Structures
1.
Amino acid sequence: MTTYTVGFLVGSISSTSINRRLSRALVKLAPQADLTLTEIPIAGLPFYSADNDGAIPAEAAEFKAAIEASDAVILITPEYNRSVPGVLKNALDTASRPWGQNSLAGKPSAVIGGSIGPIGTAVAQQHLRSILSFLASPELSQPEAYIHMRDGLFTEDGDVTDDSTTEFLVSWLKAVHTHIAKSLSDVS
Ligand SMILES: Cc1cc2nc3c(=O)[nH]c(=O)nc-3n(C[C@H](O)[C@H](O)[C@H](O)COP(=O)(O)O)c2cc1C
């Protein structure tokens, strides 16, 4: 089976981010789904401004190039105030511009997120799907992946302590693989 290279964005810059733990788990489990996951960092991106469209900042250009070089992107989002954290929205705005140079157009994507709340980022993910839809990124619709981050579910290193969560994450990654294969075959 083809191994796809997937860039992932972590929508939290917290040093204690539970979504970063989730990202580490996904990196470890990805080979079981014939995926290689590589982070595309967003913490150093300047705030997007149309003033810079004529001369894109180097960090933004590097970020856009990394998305374009990936077969697909995975967005790992916290939920902040029932929406997408600003740092992640800024990254998506940066990816989308200058007008006509949307790095996410046609790029397969998948969303997942973890929250201490029981609905596991469901509302933030709906907002994220709306943004990705506008950006013409074909999204994995099912299975949805709302992770309720109970204490101890993930170790700091990204080991999952619960078998059913491990099984779910591997099955979700396999669905991401199928989604990428289908999306890329549709455009070739
Ligand atoms: C500004 C802010 C807003 C939050 N809003 C929500 C929310 O709407 N829903 C939710 O389930 N948790 C919410 N939380 C709690 C987060 O789930 C929790 O802080 C989580 O650790 C954030 O993910 P991170 O550690 O990867 O940054 C919020 C936290 C912060 C700091």
2.
Amino acid sequence: MSLASRSPIALAAASRSAQRLAAAKPTQAAAYSLLAAASKRAVPEAAHVAQYSLLARASAASKRASIQGTRGIKTLDFAGTKEVVYERSDWPLAKLHDYFKNDTLALIGYGSQGHGQGLNARDNGLNVIVGVREGGESWKQAQEDGWVPGETLFPIEEAINRGTIIMNLLSDAAQSQTWPTIAPLITPGKTLYFSHGFSVVYKEDTHVIPPADVDVILVAPKGSGRTVRTLFKEGRGINSSIAVWQDVTGKAKEKATALGVAIGSGYMYETTFEKEVYSDLYGERGVLMGGIQGMFLAQYKVLRANGHSPSEAFNETVEEATQSLFPLIGAKGMDYMYAACSTTARRGALDWAPIFEAANRPVFEKLYQSVRDGTETRKSLEFNGRDTYREDLARELKEIDDQEIWRAGKTVRSLRPDYKP
Ligand SMILES: NC(=O)c1ccc[n+]([C@@H]2O[C@H](COP(=O)([O-])OP(=O)(O)OC[C@H]3O[C@@H](n4cnc5c(N)ncnc54)[C@H](OP(=O)(O)O)[C@@H]3O)[C@@H](O)[C@H]2O)c1
């Protein structure tokens, strides 16, 4: 929701907090938390006029707070390799507003990323519009989130014509299908933005070839759009990759960093379009999604084949992993998780980890090649380009849901004290 559409109570609270924070020389993170906190509140339409003076005060206070909070770009040592990390604090809100004062961010597509990135940029006080198919599912969803037809919500072509920064957040298959319509509208002076390297890197398959006279940049949040939104509302920020495909103005990287902040990133890591798409397609097919399901299932099936009950097999495979051990890895690393377990468990895990690595490595090599040579892209374009892609995906997910392991999991989860059906 825009700054101007917040409740008077929220803005008064924001203004007071901002003044307190400014007096206390707060950090930039605090300034963003303040705005994020204000954005959580309700939005009575009739109260808009009264909000403007409060908005101005809150904005001025947050500008003072933000400027004092600048911390600079960091070079960090990642296990012996030095990498530059761009921070939200390099872009205080006042600087962000000034930088984009003549821009309209046109978000094309309103799936998970459109929702998260769009609402965050709007809450950061930027001029944002949404472009989606009229009457489609996204059109309805955008209206529910407060985008107004004819004011901030438009059919795709009109939104592109009105925008200066065209954020292509259609599904990857749709980016390819719609490119013949979209390409002529990307005129000189506009910037073309993606959240995935997919379309331009695999141009032989997608046929997405940006015009030579516009900046082409990428901000890829490392998480779902829902997380992009949740972390922003909590005053935190998602990690994102940033990259430049084409730098016509000499300002492409700077623009990517600023947009990364605008859409709710906390820290941004520089990469290339190629490396972003290779690592992303590889990771989701590997450990993050495909690999984890395969490992869980293999372990569960061997337990079941050896006479263990479904509950025992599930608890020893999934429940203990997700509820006890994986959070420990997330908090402090693998050795920390090992150290939290028995010496018996530690000995066995230390012995078997290299065996699993050796067994899995060829699969990962094969997967990387399949990503690199475009096989994965072509499969995705073919499948997700079908008219029936939603139903086809839903059918396969239902097959997973019907597997014994996940049916057993439902009963195990129902016993948790905080269980919600
Ligand atoms: N989701 C993630 O976790 C994630 C993370 C990082 C980056 N990304 C990248 O962000 C981009 C957007 O992904 P997403 O997950 O937010 O979106 P998505 O769910 O894959 O795509 C949804 C959008 O595409 C539109 N769309 C689909 N087919 C269309 C067609 N033929 N013509 C016009 N519009 C069509 C939908 O509109 P309708 O409702 O009208 O069908 C909807 O607005 C992708 O490049 C993706 O790789 C995603």
3.
Amino acid sequence: MELVSLFFVVTTSIFTLSLLNYSLKLVWWRHARLPLPPGTMGWPYIGETFQLYSQNPNTFFSSKVKKYGSIFKTHVLGCPCVMISSPEAAKLVLVSKAHLFKPTFPASKERMIGKQAIFFHEGDYHSKLRRLVLRSFMPDSIKNIVSDIDSIAINSLESWEGRTFITTFQEMKTYTINVALLSIFGKDEVSYRDELKKCYYTVENGYNSLPINLPGTLFHSAMKARKDLAKILATIISLRREMKTDHSDLLGSFMGDAEGLTDDQIADNVIGVIFAARDTTATVLTWILKYLAENPTVLQAVTEEQEAIMRSKEDRGGLIWADTKKMGVTTKVIQETMRVASILSFTFREAVEDVEFKGYLIPKGWKVLPLFRHIHHSPENFTDPHNFDPSRFEVAPKPNTFLPFGSGAHSCPGNELAKLEMLVIIHHLTTKYRWSMMGPQNGIQYGPFALPQNGLPIKISLK
Ligand code: HEM
């Protein structure tokens, strides 16, 4: 009897192994026979990096799409890549088949932000961080900080008064870092803010520099400032532990006892959130000022909407959450700005295994780039795509065609806060100030976000 069972076990195992081997061969054979997407890989190592980064990325994308279709291969930043330019393919990579495409960043960026930050992870650790971040940035939480954001906006704009010219992007960055710090630390630990900002600015300075960690390089100073930042955060965390008080801000959410995050994990994620929140929102705000200055009818409509809100709050003072829900025209201006400016031209994923994708092979390790900018600027998705026309958002865009905050498990958890802080500052800007651009402003810098040339120098005066 025992011999019979042994025979049965052995034959079943042999059969299963052969079947597995056969299936693996079949998968390998199918993949080996699949063609790579069409396209060119450019020069050895540098590939087509220069062609992509030296001009409006749309010129690169459009000429490739015209020649090769909506999926094509190329080689940028030292990596073989597949670029995908249709809304459906973007959904596959970011949502339906997201398990096959992991987020990917250069190792130097990971080191600088901190390896344990949300962007670099998947699975349980990522879901936990996302829950904690969303808990602090959902409408129910951020509606409690509207009046603080209101004060930050008023103070920022007052600091612009009387100056001969303003570099919009720089000033917006000051506004957005202050809002980011408010959302992370609430109104506490104010005495550490200046020191935190000083270290953060040094980190930011070295972020896009060559990753050479030798004394004297920007990268080296940034890595040093990164360590100092972690020390300041460790001090704040231990102070909060001693005080044993509850906080409803992001740091409070990360420090919840049940969450079990280490101090290093908290520090990496606090720094990560500042990175994600600051330049993105400041860049969109810079574009908004440009588009409003260039489109007087739209500016008039926004101003009328905001003046009506200002009149309605005369007896009670500052803005409240309900006011921001009455800003329909302004909201469409923000949406249209994010579409036209498409500050994040694309994002990066990496194939975790050989993937069959729309009849092509994407080899394991290759980068996959959904082209947000191309999708936003395609006439198939938006009529007259190069026209700035906020009224187009009176009708909801077709699915997967409007992705300023990405899509899927890594989509932007800060989008509600970003929209709120933009609405608040536009309210004060349009009701109290006039601004004009200093000279013609047609140039765009792409590094890394698409930004008006020189950060949009403007003149501003009180109404
Ligand atoms: C207008 C401003 C903003 C834009 C356009 C923007 C855009 C994006 C996009 C496209 C992604 C997804 C990237 C990808 O899939 O690879 C993302 C992720 C993220 N954003 Fe934003 N963002 C903005 C503001 C903010 C703010 C204000 C915060 C925080 C307060 C924030 C926090 C994050 C975080 C933590 C992630 C990573 C999420 C994850 O990996 O799960 N962002 N953002």
